[in-house]
Amino acid sequence: MSTSGKPISDLTVFKYCLGGLNERALLLREMATSASDRELLEFAHQVALYSGCSHHRHQIRMARNLIAEGTKVWSSIARNNHLVHWESVMYEIEEPFINIARSSTRSLNKQLLIQDFELLRRLAGCQEYMAQENFEKMWCWLYPVALTLSKDSINALWNSGSPKWIEGFITKEEAEFSLQGPSGLQEPGTFVLRFPTSRSWPHPDSGTLIVTYVGSDCIIHHRLLTLDSLYSSGEEEMNAKSLQDMLLAEPELSRLARIIRSH
Q1: What is the residue-averaged pLDDT of the chain?
Q2: In whole angstroms, what is the distance from residue 106 CA to residue 117 CA?
């Protein structure tokens, strides 16, 4: 991955397209330290072209900042220690999360419930203590989420207190449970916004919102929201509809569900 000015080979592009998440992450970590910004942008374009999935472009573009910010946060938390107590991590990740998400009113340990931290701990795969490997697992999920929340069309919904459009970090099971009423499913059109816990960088859908809703067929559905306009630039971004407008324009979505957290 030299910066000699030569174009990135087709072999590298195909390796990324055909590789698993671990192979892609290793390749991007190498490129983030050796390739120029122009080379990364060209690589992102070629991967999107050959894979037929434009979402790869966003994951490649965020690679350099994700890795740099993650390294800085872990260094401040660990302070040359191999293991860090989980409670220390909880408080240390609040500030970088707020800064990346541009969260003016919502912070991790004030507004969100303890279950949100438990979800992050499960994503990290750690118990009382966290190693760097565990931190990187959590960070690869949290950073794309924070980056999505920083976008203008979503940021206002995240910071909204009444109603809470995005309640917090919830699992698929918790979202489905929230759509259950005393005598069965809630009314058709009731929905929950959540981030998929099974999607971490560099998965093409990491950081993307999913709407879980009761359809007109009285069945719970899960639909990935297409937010390509969030990552565009120029006039297209300025003319993009807000997420709230997009949701309210959907005929099958009519009201927010009240979130019920499992213990």
Answers
A1: 86
A2: 14
